[in-house]
Each structure stands twice: as structure tokens, then as C-alpha cells.
Design brief:
With 300 residues, this protein is an all-alpha fold. It has ten helices and no strands. The longest helix has 42 residues. The termini are far apart.
């Protein structure tokens, strides 16, 4: 209990510990972001083979991972995808190993390691520290950290694969309801949380079907419905409109910029999950200020 008292009495210590924890979790999130889509694809392929009674039981068509019979978040051990060099403990220290020990290259074959790995670790550390600064040394901080870590994973998985896994969004929804049911301090009643979850799903579900009826095309995926429902469960129905507006505005600006500046094909679908997750984080940290600006500018 002394460590708890010390952390509560020292904001600097709280921020330091949370940042270090965020860096460590960020290293694990890199594993989740890379492996979960492959795990899901293997599972879906196995289910299709079983349903269609196909003899081909090949679990994976990905050349980099097909050689592993067991492929989950624990196994195989972290390794270089080119030379299969097993990543040792001192080579896996968040950010430090990449910058000072490995210098951005595999210690065995010298293949360049993507800058994305330390970037995810650093971003997770910073975003985690902001959560601690906003909510203090409370149980709510621990719960919100889980939410933020899930949002980071969903952002990059959707960016890479246009996929928001149910394995993350559905537990996130139930966790949000649980946090507000036991009243950890989110200042959201369980009624508002339940309405937020229902309304969050139905808002995008309605847009989906209206767009499909008008154009014959699918404008978004069901994962977006579930993510907005999860955010509604955490922050209540009152947060839904600002989240939708923020995510839509940023998504429109980024999408238009990519088309005009980078020459992106406008017919290629663009994932919406990253903008939802980003808007959700902004509302989580600066919700009262955003709501105050919105109502003072557009309502009054």
C-alpha cells in the first residue's frame, strides 16, 4: 500500500510509471497489431474448409508465417522475418534497443527494422501518460488505459487490413458498460452508457443501409458500428455526436489530402476506424472542453 500512497502523492512518479508501462505495453501492441489479423485469417480459413469439407487444410498462405504450425500472441517467439533470428530480451527493450543497440537493424542479418515499432511504443507511452495526467492515480485510470491501448491496436489493424476485430471491439463495449455500472468515476450513468452503446451501433447501422439503398455500395463495415457502440458505452450517448463530427471532419480532410496530394485512387476504400478511435481519445481527455466549444459555438 505504501507504493500506492506514494504514487497518489507524487504526480511526477505517476506520470513516469505510466509512461514506462505504456512503452512496455506498446511493445506488446506491436505483436497484437501484426499477429491478430493473421490469426483471424487462419481461423476463418479453417472454418471455411470445415464447412465446405475441403481436404486442403493449409492454415496460412502468408509465406512469412505459413511455416509456423502454432501462431498466436505467445508463439512463435519474436524473430526476424527474414533470417528467423530470435529476438533476445536486451534487443526488445522499447525504443532503447531500436535506437541505441540495434540502430534500426536486425543484429543478425542487418535487415532494416521498420520505424513503426518504436513509434507505436513511443505513442503508447505518451498517450498513456496523458490518461494518467487527466484521471490521476485511480482505478479509473487503469480501466481507461485498457481502452486507449485497444484503440491504438484497432487504429493500426484497421489501417493495415481495413478490419476492426470483434475480439477487441466487443470486450471493449462490455468493459465500458462494466466501468460505468460500478461507477469508477467516468461520470456516466449506466443508463446513459447503455443508451450510448445502442445508439452508437444504430447510428452507423442506419447510415450503412441508407447509403447502400441509395448507391448499392457499402460505405463502411460492421466493425465501425461496434467501435462507436463501444465508445458510447464508455462515454455515454452525449459523446456520440461530437465523436461522429470530429472523426468525419478529420477523415474528410485526410482523405481529400491523400487524393489531391498523394494521388490516391478515390475508388479505393479508406478505413474509418482510425478517425473514430482518434476522436474517441480526444473526447476521453478533452471531452468537457470540446462539448463546451461545440455548444457555445453552434447551439447558443
Amino acid at each position: 500500500m505504501e507504493i500506492v500512497t506514494l504514487v497518489q502523492a507524487s504526480p511526477a512518479l505517476l506520470l513516469t510509471l505510466t509512461t514506462v508501462l505504456g512503452l512496455l505495453v506498446g511493445s506488446f501492441l506491436n505483436v497484437v497489431i501484426y499477429r491478430m489479423p493473421i490469426m483471424l485469417q487462419r481461423d476463418w480459413r479453417a472454418q471455411c474448409h470445415e464447412f465446405l469439407d475441403l481436404k486442403n487444410k493449409e492454415p496460412d498462405t502468408n509465406a512469412a508465417t505459413a511455416k509456423f504450425k502454432v501462431f498466436n500472441l505467445q508463439k512463435p517467439d519474436s524473430h526476424c522475418p527474414l533470417c528467423n533470428h530470435k529476438i533476445r530480451a536486451w534487443e526488445n527493450i522499447p525504443v532503447i534497443s531500436y535506437v541505441f543497440l540495434l540502430r534500426g537493424k536486425c543484429s543478425s542479418c542487418k535487415t532494416k527494422i521498420s520505424i513503426r515499432y518504436p513509434t507505436v511504443e513511443t505513442a503508447t507511452g505518451i498517450l498513456s501518460a496523458l490518461v494518467a495526467a487527466s484521471f490521476g492515480a485511480t482505478w479509473l485510470t487503469l480501466a481507461v488505459l485498457v481502452l486507449v491501448w485497444c484503440l491504438i491496436s484497432l487504429t493500426l489493424i484497421d489501417f493495415d487490413h481495413q478490419l476492426l476485430p470483434d475480439d477487441i471491439t466487443i470486450p471493449l463495449l462490455w468493459l465500458g458498460l462494466a466501468v460505468n455500472a460500478v461507477d469508477l468515476g467516468m461520470q456516466v450513468s449506466i443508463t446513459d452508457a447503455v443508451i450510448g452503446a445502442i445508439a452508437g451501433y444504430l447510428v452507423f447501422w442506419s447510415f450503412f443501409w441508407l447509403f447502400k439503398l441509395l448507391t448499392g455500395k457499402e460505405g463502411m463495415g460492421y466493425g465501425d458500428f461496434k467501435l462507436l457502440a463501444a465508445l458510447g458505452a464508455w462515454m455515454g450517448w452525449q459523446s456520440l455526436l461530437p465523436i461522429v463530427i470530429l472523426s468525419s471532419l478529420v477523415g474528410a480532410v485526410v482523405g481529400l489530402g491523400m487524393i489531391l496530394i498523394m494521388g490516391r485512387d478515390k475508388s479505393v476504400p479508406m478505413p474509418f476506424g482510425p478517425y473514430l478511435a482518434g476522436a474517441g481519445y480526444l473526447m476521453l481527455i478533452w471531452g468537457p472542453q470540446i462539448n463546451g466549444f461545440y455548444f457555445s459555438t453552434f447551439v447558443n
